[in-house]
Amino acid sequence: MWEKIMECDYKYDGLFFTAVKTTKIYCRPSCRSRKPKKVNVEFYQNIEDVEKAGFRACKRCQPEVEHSPHIGLVRNVISFLINHYKQKILLQDIADHVGVSPYYLERLFKQETSETPRTYLEKIRVDKAAHLLKNTKLTNLEICYEVGFQSPSNFYKVFRNVKQCSPSEYRNRELQYEMG
């Protein structure tokens, strides 16, 4: 368990808790706070026992909260992506918006969503493109730029990866579906 808290291994969150005798604070194994001396640490299997022993929850990792303590940051990133999908967005822009480094943002976002911010943004853009293909007469090229892609070749490649067909095939399939 000591190794897991030294590695900040989030896979063990909820399986045990680390309590520091000198501060009377308990944490998740993944907590990024400064590590205590090993002699000051006790391990508990559940929250009830650690709180009964007189420890309070860490404000940084929020072990008493059922969801990940990073869910707020991830929601903030997703909201930013949804609201700015038409613009050219760099990882640095997102990182600046949420107040963390680009490296940390990408690692955390991938840990929480299993996707990078870029692939998440691409899926938002493809969903918007699919909606426009289905409901407008805009050309594929117009839709490409309307949803924020910088180049048609990237638009076609990403669209095919997400929807398993080209934009034209998607539009034709949707038209056929509506007709009958």
UniProtKB/TrEMBL annotation:
<dbReference type="GO" id="GO:0006281">
    <property type="term" value="P:DNA repair"/>
</dbReference>
<dbReference type="InterPro" id="IPR004026">
    <property type="entry name" value="Ada_DNA_repair_Zn-bd"/>
</dbReference>
<dbReference type="Pfam" id="PF02805">
    <property type="entry name" value="Ada_Zn_binding"/>
</dbReference>
<keyword id="KW-0804">Transcription</keyword>
<dbReference type="Pfam" id="PF12833">
    <property type="entry name" value="HTH_18"/>
</dbReference>
<dbReference type="GO" id="GO:0008270">
    <property type="term" value="F:zinc ion binding"/>
</dbReference>
<dbReference type="GO" id="GO:0032259">
    <property type="term" value="P:methylation"/>
</dbReference>
<keyword id="KW-0808">Transferase</keyword>
<feature type="domain" description="HTH araC/xylS-type">
    <location>
        <begin position="75"/>
        <end position="173"/>
    </location>
</feature>
<keyword id="KW-0489">Methyltransferase</keyword>
<dbReference type="InterPro" id="IPR018060">
    <property type="entry name" value="HTH_AraC"/>
</dbReference>
<keyword id="KW-0805">Transcription regulation</keyword>
<keyword id="KW-0010">Activator</keyword>
<dbReference type="InterPro" id="IPR016220">
    <property type="entry name" value="Me-P-triester_DNA_alkyl-Trfase"/>
</dbReference>
<dbReference type="InterPro" id="IPR009057">
    <property type="entry name" value="Homeodomain-like_sf"/>
</dbReference>
<dbReference type="GO" id="GO:0043565">
    <property type="term" value="F:sequence-specific DNA binding"/>
</dbReference>
<dbReference type="GO" id="GO:0003700">
    <property type="term" value="F:DNA-binding transcription factor activity"/>
</dbReference>
<dbReference type="InterPro" id="IPR035451">
    <property type="entry name" value="Ada-like_dom_sf"/>
</dbReference>
<keyword id="KW-0238">DNA-binding</keyword>
<protein>
    <submittedName>
        <fullName>Adenosine deaminase</fullName>
    </submittedName>
</protein>
<dbReference type="GO" id="GO:0008168">
    <property type="term" value="F:methyltransferase activity"/>
</dbReference>
